[in-house]
Amino acid sequence: MEYFRQFLRLKGRCLVCGEAPKTVPGLCNSCDQKIQRIERPCYQCGEPMHFNPSSHKCGRCQSSPPAFDHSVSPLLYSDPLRQLHLNFKFHQDLAAGNLLANLLYDSLSHSNAMPQLLVPIPLHAERMRERGFDQALEIAKVLARRLQIPFHSGLLVRKNCTQPQSGLSRAQRHKNLRNAFTLTQPLPVKHVALVDDIMTTGSTFNAAAQLMKTAGVKTVEVWAVGRSTRDE
Ligand SMILES: [Zn+2]
Ligand SMILES: [Zn+2]
User: Fold this and answer.
1) pLDDT score recorded for residue 231
2) In this model, does residue 108 exceed pLDDT 50?
3) What is the mean pLDDT of residues 101-119?
4) How far is CA 59 from CA 44, 48, 49, 54, 170, in A?
5) Which of 169, 157, 229 lies closest to 199 in space, CA to CA?
6) How far apart are CA 90 and CA 134, in angstroms?
7) Which residue ranges make up each domain of the chain?
8) Distance 16 CA to ligand 1 centre (A)
9) CA of 156 to the centre of ligand 2 (A)
10) Ligand 2 centre distance from Cα of residue 45 (Å)
């Protein structure tokens, strides 16, 4: 399978279906159009807003806002995005990872003030050992290069081995992740973007953002390629 993908890449074909790429580097027109963009995302949490399109924040963020100030998570986690993400995460398909990072890059509002530092959400040390590959870090690297913003991968670390988030409610996820992270050194900046591959409830981002705020960061953005309603 890896050889097949490598072959397609060399032939300049779409990373999803094998057709020739046209509009987006790595994707043909048809696959590009199948990627679902989130319409009217809440400025703060990034979830699609169905009931309050006149405000830039959803009802939940108005009543109990998360610790982060702004989310960019533009795509819905469905095929073909899902397929690209699984190739990236489990088969270390860096061309797919590069494409995912570029899709996120294209959704950033370049008129807003950019963060001073990108901080990837770290994997558990054990998972890193098992997999030998950190997808959030790979995405942060591409964004840092394109945006000319530094990234720091050793700043935020996982403190204890939290239980898997699968099957937990929103409240249980928050509890599970409390104290999940620690900072290895003081933060020299006031505006940070946390970077991950896929965002689900935002509990992981929230825990990391809380820590950043406690450490004196004024503005915390969270950036992920897509949103899933499923497990992290
Ligand atoms: Zn295609
Ligand atoms: Zn919201």
Assistant:
1) 46
2) yes
3) 91
4) 11, 11, 9, 11, 16
5) 229
6) 10
7) 1-34, 42-227
8) 5
9) 25
10) 4
CA 17 – ligand 2 centroid, Å: 34
Q: Write the burial class of residue 53 (CB in 10 Å: 0-12 exposed, 13-18 middle, 19+ buried).
A: exposed
Ligand 2: centre distance to CA 74 (Å): 14
DSSP letter (8 states) at residue 117: E
Mean pLDDT, rounded, for 11-39? 84
Return the ligand number nearest the Cα of 50: 2
**Which residues hold their Cβ within 5 A of ligand 2, which is an ion?**
42, 44-45, 58, 61
Q: Which CATH class name applies to 42-227?
A: alpha beta
How many angstroms does the Cα of residue 108 sit away from the middle of ligand 2?
17
d(CA 31, CA 103): 13
Ligand positioned closest to the Cα atom of 73:
2
Distance in Å, CA 88 to ligand 2 centroid: 28
For residue 34, the ligand closest to its alpha carbon is 1
Q: Where are the alpha helices (DSSP H) in the chain?
A: 2-10, 29-34, 59-63, 81-91, 94-107, 125-131, 135-147, 170-177, 203-214
Does a cis peptide bond (omega within 30 degrees of 0) precede residue 41? no
Question: Which pLDDT does position 135 carry in this prediction?
Answer: 92
Query: Which ligand gives the minimal distance to the CA of 65?
Result: 2
Spatial CB neighbours of 22, under 8 Å, sequence gap ≥ 6: 28, 29, 32
Kindly report the CA angle at 206 between 227 and 71, in degrees rounded to 5?
Answer: 45
- How far apart CA 92 and CA 100 sit, in angstroms, is 13
147 pLDDT higher than 60: yes
